[in-house]
Protein backbone atom coordinates (compact mmCIF):
# COMPACT_ATOMS: atom_id res chain seq x y z
CA UNK A 1 0.00 0.00 0.00
CA UNK A 2 1.16 3.50 -0.86
CA UNK A 3 -0.15 6.57 0.96
CA UNK A 4 0.32 9.78 -0.97
CA UNK A 5 -1.15 13.23 -1.55
CA UNK A 6 -4.52 13.31 -3.29
CA UNK A 7 -4.54 14.60 -6.87
CA UNK A 8 -7.30 15.53 -9.28
CA UNK A 9 -6.68 12.26 -11.14
CA UNK A 10 -7.82 10.36 -8.01
CA UNK A 11 -11.22 12.01 -7.83
CA UNK A 12 -13.29 9.56 -9.86
CA UNK A 13 -12.39 6.78 -7.40
CA UNK A 14 -12.46 9.06 -4.34
CA UNK A 15 -15.94 10.32 -5.24
CA UNK A 16 -17.17 6.75 -5.78
CA UNK A 17 -15.99 5.83 -2.26
CA UNK A 18 -17.54 9.06 -0.93
CA UNK A 19 -20.89 8.16 -2.55
CA UNK A 20 -20.93 4.63 -1.07
CA UNK A 21 -19.90 5.85 2.40
CA UNK A 22 -21.74 9.06 3.18
CA UNK A 23 -25.39 10.09 3.02
CA UNK A 24 -24.40 13.64 2.00
CA UNK A 25 -21.30 13.11 -0.12
CA UNK A 26 -18.87 15.75 -1.27
CA UNK A 27 -18.57 16.57 -4.97
CA UNK A 28 -15.46 16.58 -7.12
CA UNK A 29 -15.40 20.37 -6.80
CA UNK A 30 -15.55 20.12 -2.98
CA UNK A 31 -12.46 17.93 -2.98
CA UNK A 32 -10.56 20.15 -5.43
CA UNK A 33 -11.31 23.17 -3.26
CA UNK A 34 -10.12 21.28 -0.18
CA UNK A 35 -6.87 19.68 -1.33
CA UNK A 36 -5.58 22.69 -3.27
CA UNK A 37 -5.46 24.98 -0.23
CA UNK A 38 -1.97 25.24 1.28
CA UNK A 39 -3.00 24.77 4.93
CA UNK A 40 -5.02 21.63 4.20
CA UNK A 41 -3.83 18.06 3.72
CA UNK A 42 -5.57 15.29 1.75
CA UNK A 43 -4.20 11.78 1.31
CA UNK A 44 -5.17 8.63 -0.56
CA UNK A 45 -4.24 5.00 0.01
CA UNK A 46 -3.48 3.15 -3.21
CA UNK A 47 -3.11 -0.59 -3.75
CA UNK A 48 -2.38 -2.17 -7.12
CA UNK A 49 -3.37 1.04 -8.89
CA UNK A 50 -6.71 1.38 -7.06
CA UNK A 51 -7.68 4.00 -4.50
CA UNK A 52 -8.78 2.10 -1.40
CA UNK A 53 -9.28 5.01 0.98
CA UNK A 54 -8.69 8.68 1.66
CA UNK A 55 -8.69 11.26 4.43
CA UNK A 56 -8.13 14.95 4.84
CA UNK A 57 -8.02 17.93 7.15
CA UNK A 58 -8.37 21.69 6.97
CA UNK A 59 -5.69 23.62 8.85
CA UNK A 60 -6.80 26.80 10.57
CA UNK A 61 -4.41 28.75 12.83
CA UNK A 62 -2.65 25.76 14.36
CA UNK A 63 -5.72 23.52 14.56
CA UNK A 64 -6.82 20.90 12.09
CA UNK A 65 -10.39 19.89 11.37
CA UNK A 66 -10.69 16.41 9.87
CA UNK A 67 -13.49 16.42 7.30
CA UNK A 68 -13.12 13.17 5.44
CA UNK A 69 -12.05 9.65 6.34
CA UNK A 70 -13.29 6.74 4.24
CA UNK A 71 -12.17 3.30 3.13
CA UNK A 72 -13.77 1.38 0.28
CA UNK A 73 -16.11 -1.27 1.72
CA UNK A 74 -14.23 -4.32 0.47
CA UNK A 75 -10.96 -3.01 1.96
CA UNK A 76 -12.20 -2.25 5.48
CA UNK A 77 -10.70 -4.00 8.53
CA UNK A 78 -7.27 -4.13 6.88
CA UNK A 79 -5.68 -1.23 8.82
CA UNK A 80 -5.99 1.14 5.85
CA UNK A 81 -7.91 3.75 7.87
CA UNK A 82 -5.38 3.48 10.68
CA UNK A 83 -2.41 3.93 8.31
CA UNK A 84 -4.08 6.85 6.55
CA UNK A 85 -4.82 8.58 9.84
CA UNK A 86 -1.28 8.02 11.17
CA UNK A 87 0.09 9.66 8.02
CA UNK A 88 -2.48 12.46 8.21
CA UNK A 89 -1.44 13.22 11.79
CA UNK A 90 2.21 13.30 10.70
CA UNK A 91 1.37 15.60 7.78
CA UNK A 92 -0.65 17.93 10.02
CA UNK A 93 2.21 18.11 12.52
CA UNK A 94 4.66 19.06 9.76
CA UNK A 95 2.27 21.79 8.60
CA UNK A 96 2.33 23.32 12.08
CA UNK A 97 -0.98 21.91 13.32
CA UNK A 98 -0.84 21.29 17.07
CA UNK A 99 -4.28 19.68 17.57
CA UNK A 100 -6.85 17.86 15.45
CA UNK A 101 -10.59 17.52 15.86
CA UNK A 102 -13.38 15.63 14.13
CA UNK A 103 -16.99 14.58 14.46
CA UNK A 104 -18.16 11.02 14.03
CA UNK A 105 -21.64 9.49 14.07
CA UNK A 106 -22.36 8.22 17.57
CA UNK A 107 -23.36 4.85 16.08
CA UNK A 108 -20.08 4.45 14.13
CA UNK A 109 -18.31 2.37 16.76
CA UNK A 110 -15.55 1.05 14.46
CA UNK A 111 -14.54 4.63 13.57
CA UNK A 112 -14.72 5.75 17.21
CA UNK A 113 -12.44 2.85 18.21
CA UNK A 114 -10.03 3.76 15.40
CA UNK A 115 -9.80 7.37 16.57
CA UNK A 116 -9.40 6.31 20.19
CA UNK A 117 -6.53 3.99 19.18
CA UNK A 118 -4.80 7.04 17.69
CA UNK A 119 -5.17 9.03 20.92
CA UNK A 120 -8.31 11.03 20.16
CA UNK A 121 -10.52 11.73 23.18
CA UNK A 122 -14.28 12.32 23.43
CA UNK A 123 -14.95 15.94 24.33
CA UNK A 124 -18.64 16.41 23.64
CA UNK A 125 -21.75 15.67 21.61
CA UNK A 126 -23.30 17.71 18.79
CA UNK A 127 -27.01 16.98 19.01
CA UNK A 128 -28.64 16.06 15.68
CA UNK A 129 -25.46 17.02 13.80
CA UNK A 130 -26.07 14.49 11.02
CA UNK A 131 -29.09 14.13 8.78
CA UNK A 132 -30.09 11.26 6.50
CA UNK A 133 -30.54 9.76 9.10
CA UNK A 134 -30.63 12.28 11.91
CA UNK A 135 -28.02 11.41 14.52
CA UNK A 136 -25.77 12.95 17.14
CA UNK A 137 -22.06 13.40 16.52
CA UNK A 138 -19.31 12.59 18.99
CA UNK A 139 -16.72 15.39 19.07
CA UNK A 140 -13.19 14.07 19.42
CA UNK A 141 -9.83 15.85 19.83
CA UNK A 142 -6.19 14.89 19.56
CA UNK A 143 -4.42 17.53 21.60
CA UNK A 144 -1.49 17.92 21.38
CA UNK A 145 -0.28 16.11 18.28
CA UNK A 146 2.98 14.29 18.99
From TrEMBL:
Residue ranges constituting the N-acetyltransferase domain according to the UniProt record:
1-145
A Pfam family that the UniProt record links to this protein: Acetyltransf_1
Subcellular localization: Cytoplasm
What catalytic activity is recorded? Answer: N-terminal L-alanyl-[ribosomal protein bS18] + acetyl-CoA = N-terminal N(alpha)-acetyl-L-alanyl-[ribosomal protein bS18] + CoA + H(+)
Task: Please provide, alphabetically and separated by semicolons, the GO molecular function terms listed in this UniProt record.
Answer: protein-N-terminal-alanine acetyltransferase activity
Q: State the GO CC annotations.
A: cytoplasm; ribosome
> Into which EC class is this enzyme placed?
transferase
Q: Does the keyword Transferase apply?
A: yes
Q: Which Gene3D superfamilies match?
A: 3.40.630.30
Q: Which UniProt keywords apply?
A: Acyltransferase, Cytoplasm, Ribonucleoprotein, Ribosomal protein, Transferase
Q: What is its EC number?
A: 2.3.1.266
Whether Transit peptide counts among this entry's keywords is: no
Which PROSITE patterns does UniProt cross-reference here? GNAT
InterPro entries in UniProt = AcTrfase_RimI/Ard1 (IPR006464), Acyl_CoA_acyltransferase (IPR016181), GNAT_dom (IPR000182), YpeA/RimI_acetyltransf (IPR050680)
Per its database record, what is this protein's job?
Acetylates the N-terminal alanine of ribosomal protein bS18.
* Family according to the record: Belongs to the acetyltransferase family. RimI subfamily.
Quote the NCBIfam families the UniProt record gives: rimI (TIGR01575)
What is the protein name for this chain?
[Ribosomal protein bS18]-alanine N-acetyltransferase
Q: Which gene encodes it?
A: rimI
